[in-house]
Amino acid sequence: MSSGLVMWAWFYAPSRLPHAYNKWITSAAAVDARLINALRLCRNNQLQYGKDLGPDARVLEGMSQDYAFLGTFITLFFYGVCLARTRVGPLILGTSVAARQTIDSGLCTAVGCGLCGWSILIERASRRKDIGLFVVPRALATMLPRRYPLDKQWRETLVFAASTAVVFTAIQENPKRVRGVMGEVLKTVLVP
Protein backbone atom coordinates (compact mmCIF):
# COMPACT_ATOMS: atom_id res chain seq x y z
CA MET A 1 0.00 0.00 0.00
CA SER A 2 2.78 2.43 0.89
CA SER A 3 4.56 1.79 -2.42
CA GLY A 4 1.35 2.63 -4.22
CA LEU A 5 1.00 5.91 -2.32
CA VAL A 6 4.62 6.83 -3.05
CA MET A 7 4.16 6.12 -6.77
CA TRP A 8 0.89 8.08 -6.83
CA ALA A 9 2.70 11.03 -5.26
CA TRP A 10 5.56 10.63 -7.74
CA PHE A 11 3.14 10.84 -10.66
CA TYR A 12 0.81 13.58 -9.47
CA ALA A 13 2.39 15.42 -6.52
CA PRO A 14 6.18 15.04 -6.68
CA SER A 15 6.67 18.03 -4.36
CA ARG A 16 5.30 15.91 -1.49
CA LEU A 17 8.24 13.51 -1.75
CA PRO A 18 11.77 14.23 -0.52
CA HIS A 19 13.83 15.64 -3.40
CA ALA A 20 16.44 12.85 -3.32
CA TYR A 21 13.74 10.15 -3.26
CA ASN A 22 11.88 11.77 -6.14
CA LYS A 23 15.12 11.97 -8.13
CA TRP A 24 15.92 8.31 -7.39
CA ILE A 25 12.47 7.11 -8.53
CA THR A 26 12.72 9.25 -11.68
CA SER A 27 16.10 7.77 -12.62
CA ALA A 28 15.03 4.20 -11.81
CA ALA A 29 11.76 4.47 -13.73
CA ALA A 30 13.38 6.03 -16.82
CA VAL A 31 9.97 7.23 -18.04
CA ASP A 32 9.75 9.93 -20.68
CA ALA A 33 9.00 13.21 -18.92
CA ARG A 34 6.50 14.11 -21.65
CA LEU A 35 4.38 11.09 -20.70
CA ILE A 36 4.40 12.07 -17.02
CA ASN A 37 3.43 15.61 -17.99
CA ALA A 38 0.57 14.31 -20.19
CA LEU A 39 -0.73 12.18 -17.31
CA ARG A 40 -0.62 15.17 -14.97
CA LEU A 41 -2.49 17.29 -17.52
CA CYS A 42 -5.17 14.58 -17.80
CA ARG A 43 -5.47 14.45 -14.01
CA ASN A 44 -5.96 18.24 -13.83
CA ASN A 45 -8.50 18.22 -16.71
CA GLN A 46 -6.17 20.34 -18.84
CA LEU A 47 -5.89 17.55 -21.41
CA GLN A 48 -9.09 15.86 -22.47
CA TYR A 49 -9.70 13.05 -24.93
CA GLY A 50 -11.28 14.16 -28.19
CA LYS A 51 -10.45 17.82 -27.62
CA ASP A 52 -7.86 19.31 -29.98
CA LEU A 53 -5.23 21.18 -28.03
CA GLY A 54 -2.90 21.96 -30.92
CA PRO A 55 0.78 21.11 -30.70
CA ASP A 56 0.51 19.29 -27.35
CA ALA A 57 -1.91 16.78 -28.86
CA ARG A 58 0.51 16.17 -31.74
CA VAL A 59 3.34 15.58 -29.28
CA LEU A 60 1.19 13.06 -27.43
CA GLU A 61 0.34 11.34 -30.71
CA GLY A 62 4.01 11.19 -31.70
CA MET A 63 4.95 9.83 -28.29
CA SER A 64 2.27 7.16 -28.50
CA GLN A 65 3.52 6.12 -31.91
CA ASP A 66 7.13 5.99 -30.66
CA TYR A 67 6.10 3.83 -27.70
CA ALA A 68 4.04 1.56 -29.96
CA PHE A 69 7.09 1.11 -32.20
CA LEU A 70 9.39 0.40 -29.27
CA GLY A 71 6.91 -1.97 -27.62
CA THR A 72 6.40 -3.88 -30.87
CA PHE A 73 10.16 -4.01 -31.42
CA ILE A 74 10.76 -5.57 -27.99
CA THR A 75 7.73 -7.87 -28.22
CA LEU A 76 8.72 -9.24 -31.62
CA PHE A 77 12.30 -9.80 -30.47
CA PHE A 78 11.31 -11.84 -27.42
CA TYR A 79 8.57 -13.63 -29.35
CA GLY A 80 11.16 -14.69 -31.93
CA VAL A 81 13.55 -15.92 -29.25
CA CYS A 82 10.83 -17.89 -27.45
CA LEU A 83 9.41 -19.24 -30.71
CA ALA A 84 12.81 -20.52 -31.83
CA ARG A 85 13.66 -21.98 -28.42
CA THR A 86 10.39 -23.71 -27.58
CA ARG A 87 8.38 -24.35 -30.74
CA VAL A 88 10.06 -24.19 -34.13
CA GLY A 89 13.64 -24.97 -33.10
CA PRO A 90 12.90 -28.27 -31.32
CA LEU A 91 10.40 -29.22 -34.04
CA ILE A 92 12.98 -28.80 -36.81
CA LEU A 93 16.27 -29.64 -35.08
CA GLY A 94 15.04 -31.99 -32.36
CA THR A 95 15.47 -31.99 -28.61
CA SER A 96 18.89 -33.57 -28.25
CA VAL A 97 21.60 -31.77 -26.30
CA ALA A 98 23.42 -30.88 -29.53
CA ALA A 99 20.23 -29.47 -31.08
CA ARG A 100 19.49 -27.39 -27.99
CA GLN A 101 23.07 -26.12 -28.00
CA THR A 102 22.64 -25.08 -31.65
CA ILE A 103 19.37 -23.30 -30.89
CA ASP A 104 20.77 -21.45 -27.86
CA SER A 105 24.12 -20.60 -29.44
CA GLY A 106 22.66 -17.98 -31.73
CA LEU A 107 19.74 -19.37 -33.70
CA CYS A 108 17.06 -18.16 -31.28
CA THR A 109 18.69 -14.73 -31.06
CA ALA A 110 18.90 -14.54 -34.86
CA VAL A 111 15.18 -15.28 -35.18
CA GLY A 112 14.37 -12.59 -32.61
CA CYS A 113 16.62 -10.08 -34.35
CA GLY A 114 15.03 -10.89 -37.70
CA LEU A 115 11.49 -10.45 -36.40
CA CYS A 116 12.04 -7.23 -34.45
CA GLY A 117 12.89 -5.34 -37.63
CA TRP A 118 9.29 -5.73 -38.81
CA SER A 119 8.19 -3.25 -36.14
CA ILE A 120 9.26 -0.49 -38.55
CA LEU A 121 5.96 -1.01 -40.37
CA ILE A 122 4.16 0.74 -37.49
CA GLU A 123 5.90 4.02 -38.32
CA ARG A 124 4.74 6.50 -40.96
CA ALA A 125 6.43 6.17 -44.36
CA SER A 126 8.40 9.41 -43.96
CA ARG A 127 9.61 8.35 -40.52
CA ARG A 128 10.62 4.94 -41.91
CA LYS A 129 12.95 6.69 -44.34
CA ASP A 130 14.51 8.74 -41.54
CA ILE A 131 14.99 5.69 -39.34
CA GLY A 132 16.44 3.77 -42.29
CA LEU A 133 18.94 6.54 -43.01
CA PHE A 134 19.94 6.47 -39.36
CA VAL A 135 20.11 2.69 -38.88
CA VAL A 136 21.53 1.38 -42.18
CA PRO A 137 24.97 3.03 -41.85
CA ARG A 138 25.30 1.67 -38.32
CA ALA A 139 24.27 -1.79 -39.46
CA LEU A 140 26.82 -1.68 -42.26
CA ALA A 141 29.46 -0.46 -39.82
CA THR A 142 29.09 -3.68 -37.82
CA MET A 143 30.45 -5.57 -40.83
CA LEU A 144 33.46 -3.29 -41.33
CA PRO A 145 36.54 -2.95 -39.14
CA ARG A 146 36.43 -0.13 -36.58
CA ARG A 147 39.95 1.04 -37.43
CA TYR A 148 41.66 1.06 -40.77
CA PRO A 149 45.37 0.85 -41.43
CA LEU A 150 46.73 4.27 -42.39
CA ASP A 151 47.23 3.23 -46.01
CA LYS A 152 43.48 2.44 -46.33
CA GLN A 153 41.97 5.48 -44.58
CA TRP A 154 41.46 7.14 -47.94
CA ARG A 155 38.38 4.94 -48.36
CA GLU A 156 36.65 6.51 -45.38
CA THR A 157 37.60 9.98 -46.60
CA LEU A 158 36.22 9.18 -50.06
CA VAL A 159 32.89 7.93 -48.67
CA PHE A 160 32.58 10.99 -46.43
CA ALA A 161 33.33 13.36 -49.31
CA ALA A 162 30.81 11.62 -51.60
CA SER A 163 28.05 11.65 -48.98
CA THR A 164 28.70 15.31 -48.17
CA ALA A 165 28.54 16.13 -51.88
CA VAL A 166 25.17 14.34 -52.15
CA VAL A 167 23.71 16.29 -49.21
CA PHE A 168 25.08 19.62 -50.44
CA THR A 169 23.72 18.98 -53.95
CA ALA A 170 20.31 18.05 -52.54
CA ILE A 171 20.12 21.22 -50.46
CA GLN A 172 21.13 23.38 -53.43
CA GLU A 173 18.58 21.85 -55.81
CA ASN A 174 15.63 21.42 -53.43
CA PRO A 175 16.09 22.59 -49.82
CA LYS A 176 12.90 20.82 -48.70
CA ARG A 177 14.54 17.43 -49.32
CA VAL A 178 16.95 17.81 -46.41
CA ARG A 179 14.96 17.79 -43.16
CA GLY A 180 15.74 18.04 -39.50
CA VAL A 181 18.25 20.13 -37.61
CA MET A 182 20.99 19.50 -40.16
CA GLY A 183 18.68 20.61 -42.97
CA GLU A 184 17.88 23.87 -41.17
CA VAL A 185 21.54 24.59 -40.48
CA LEU A 186 22.59 23.84 -44.06
CA LYS A 187 19.74 25.96 -45.46
CA THR A 188 20.93 28.99 -43.51
CA VAL A 189 24.54 28.44 -44.58
CA LEU A 190 24.25 27.25 -48.20
CA VAL A 191 20.96 28.51 -49.65
CA PRO A 192 21.16 32.16 -50.83
TrEMBL record:
Record field: transmembrane? 67-84
Q: Which organism is it from?
A: Sporothrix schenckii (strain ATCC 58251 / de Perez 2211183) (Rose-picker's disease fungus)
Full protein name: Integral membrane protein
Keyword annotations from UniProtKB, A to Z: Membrane, Transmembrane, Transmembrane helix
